[in-house]
Amino acid sequence: MAGMACASAVACEALVCRIRRQPLSIENWNAFYIGLIFAMLLPAGAPWWLAIAGGAVTVLLGQALFGGLGSNPFSAPALGWAVCLVCWPQFMDVDMALASLPINEPLTQLKYFGVGSLWQFDTMQLFLGNQVGAAGASQAAALVLGGVWLMSRGVLRPFIPLAFLVGVAVTAGIHWSIDPTQYASPWFHLSTGSVMLCAFFLAPESGPSPCGRLPMILFGLLAGAMVAVIRIYGVYPDGAPFAVLLANLLTPLLDRIRPRPFGVLRRNHA
Amino acid sequence: MKSNVFSLRAELADSIVDVPVSNSLHVFIGGYEMLVKKGAKVQRGQALAVHPRPDVGLANAPVSGKVSSLDFAYLSIKAGKDGDPVEPIDLESLAPGEELNQGLHDLGISVGRIREAETLVINGLNPQPSVTIAEQLLRDEAETISLGLSLVRKAINPKRCVLAAGTGSYRLEGCTTQVVKPVYPNSLPPMVLKAVTGKEVPESTVGFSVHKLWQIGHVLRTGRAIDETVFTLNGGNYRARIGTPLVDILDFANVEIHPGDRLVLSGPMTGYSVFNVEHGIEKNVFSVNVVPKNAYPPMEDRPCINCGECVLHCPARLQPNLIARYAEYGMFERARECGLDACMECGLCSYWCPALRPMQHYIGFAKQQLHPQSGNAPTGWMH
Ligand code: SF4
Ligand code: SF4
Question: Rounded CA gap, B301 and B310, in Å?
Fold first, then answer.
């Protein structure tokens, strides 16, 4: 299924390059990458046509429409996910898709049955990926490993991912410390749903995230806080990709935070 | 991880090696107004051309001989016999101010920053990674530098004199030594001035490189116009007449070049490529680098992917991505509003850009469009 999403994404990218008479840009692996990330957000039992449609939306609506890699105002995989979720909610519902399994999706349990129902999960097991969830997003430990590897190689800047995790943990932690019987612990929030995927792969996507140290950190904190807020007050069990999309909206604003250039007097810096 | 690439520390060569005088020298005179014609006989030190900007020094003949060809960029001299030597100028006897500056100007030294100031900063850091000429001069040519410093001090009359160096082991008479971490871009003039004064816009402060002090010391001793430069090539340091064709220098130093390699003058980060191996070395050039064909992926006309690497590495705290985009689409005023004038042209944004955008070119283009009159001034390293 991931293969189908990627194939669809790459095919669309090739088509767009053809229409625009631009040199073929699939060899930079970007279309493949966003197709793959999109596929990781799908529930494991999703139908094949959903993967193909979603992959196409991710590339066409998420990126190509705005001018390609780096010009997209929204995280492309998150956009593909959101479109699919709104159009075909019955197929995107992780709990429904895998209803035949004996274990439950932790976030749906939290949403509809409250904190009291969480006795059935062991946070460590959740973190290691022993949970029901989207195809790749629920493998928290593996995603952290991948993210840390990318950071150690200098491919990924740590500002956004770490700020994102801090944002989730702090917002969830504040609620939890107010009333642990009503709100789940920050550890539970961090290890479920697509938080890790969003922290290390969706939020830091280059186009829709700000540049500069301070804007990056604020962006991560805001997106992370939104995850917890959507989960606690919103209608969706897992709001992580939505949180990223919302934070993307703030990027142009955050990009206006500019330090004083070298040698320019404070009073002359607008 | 990659930061050691930017270290300014390197082993010094045993000594500065003299490159023999070539038969034919090519003096770069782009932007100058000519004083001599093709076929004229010239004497070593004779004035050849003046720059329209009065603070830029004259171009003088590095050898005696005959002007064999002349176009908009190069004046070639075929070396010949010496005739009557040009009258030497005794700089010591000139009064500081107009008179001394005129003397220096006539000897080929640019005098833009020679004026009274309270603080005098000598930049003794190696200017760029892989270039060692500054420390080599401090070690081997301390006498000439001190001579130049004494004259500069007379002209500037500073209360405080500071040598900025990568280690505390270098001293100059009458200067306190201040250690600056020897990592690029700390060697750039604005960064050095800030390290010494603590201010980004220091008042009444001027800075000179040791290369410039060496030039001044050299003309002070000989009384003859500047006709040599010292530079780093491939880990060694050399001295050559101005106008020596690069190919002769490379042959002498046994450095091979291949089709597709690039010849970069004045440092791998901020320097410029020349298109002709016959290019004559200019007086402010402090290094010659041969960049192999496949050392770096070529720059391309690709869109910015908004990754922010350039923003994170810019020492001037700018948003090079925005500036380059404005420059690309001809919106130069907007580029200025983004702080273009604070850019030190350090080249770090070009170095880090994963989209391989020619950042420095866009920035230089915008600057040139906004200040066309400064376009042709010979650039250098705190010269
Ligand atoms: S060259 Fe680039 S990195 Fe360097 S100061 Fe200018 S804008 Fe900043
Ligand atoms: S480093 Fe290059 S691609 Fe990245 S933001 Fe700067 S200009 Fe754009």
Answer: 17
Contact assessment for residue B243 and residue B263, using Cβ atoms and an 8 Å cutoff: no
Task: List residues bridging with B17 in a β-sheet.
Answer: B238
Distance from CA of B25 to the nearest CA of A (A): 41
- Give, using CA atoms, the residue closest to atom 2 of ligand 2: B353
Question: Which-ligand-closest: CA of B363?
Answer: 1
pLDDT in tens, A210-253: 988 899 999 999 999 999 898 888 878 777 888 999 999 999 89
| Residue that has been written with the tokens 């520390």 in this structure | B9
Q: Which residue of A has its CA nearest to B308?
A: A211
B308·A263 Cβ contact <8 A: no
Distance from CA of B138 to the nearest CA of A (A): 29
**How many angstroms separate the CA atoms of B48 and B35, rounded?**
5
Tens digit of each residue's pLDDT (9 = 90 or more) over B239-272: 999 999 999 999 999 999 998 898 999 888 888 8
**For chain A, how many residues are written?**
270
Closest approach of B301 to chain A, Cα-based (Å): 12
Give CATH for domain B91-220.
Answer: 3.40.50.11540
Query: Domain extents for chain B?
Result: 91-220, 309-370
Which residue, by CA, sits nearest to atom 4 of ligand 2? Answer: B307
- DSSP assignment of B75-143: EEEEE----SPPPPP-GGGSPTTHHHHHHHHHTT---TT-S--SEEEEE-S-SSTT--HHHHHHHH-HH
Report the complex ipTM: 0.81
Residue B238 vs residue A61, higher pLDDT = B238
Average pLDDT, chain B: 89
Residues of B within 8 A of A264 (CB-CB) are 339, 342
Nearest CA to ligand 1 atom 7: B320
Measured on CA atoms in the order A70, A75, A80, A86, is the torsion positive or negative? negative
Interhelix angle A30-41/A76-87, rounded to 10 degrees, is 40
Q: Are B124 and B169 contacting, i.e. CB atoms less than 8 angstroms apart?
A: no
Ligand 2: distance of its center to the CA of A264 in Å? 23
Strand order in the sheet with B205-209: B176-179, B160-165, B119-123, B205-209
CB contact at 8 A, A192 and A106: yes
Domain ranges of chain A: 1-92, 96-256
- Check: CB of residue B235 under 8 Å from CB of residue B10: yes
The answer to whether A154 contacts chain B (CB < 8 Å) is yes
Which residue, B285, B281, B294, B249, is CA-closest to B266?
A: B285
**Which of A70, A210, A263 is facing B190, going by the closest CB pair?**
A263
CA dist B15 and B141 (Å) reads 10
Q: Does A23 touch chain B (CB under 8 A)?
A: no
pLDDT tens per residue across span B325-348: 999 999 999 999 888 989 998 999
For residue B140, how many other CB atoms are within 10 A of its CB?
17
Among B186, B193, B311, most A C-beta atoms within 10 A, so best to mutate, is B311
DSSP A39: H
**C-alpha A174 chain-centroid distance:** 22
Residues with CB under 6 A from ligand 1: B 313-316, 318, 320, 343-349, 359-360, 363
Angstroms from A209 CA to nearest CA on chain B: 8
Ligand 1, atom 3, lies closest to the CA of: B314
Measured between alpha carbons, how far is B352 from A6 in angstroms, rounded to an integer?
29
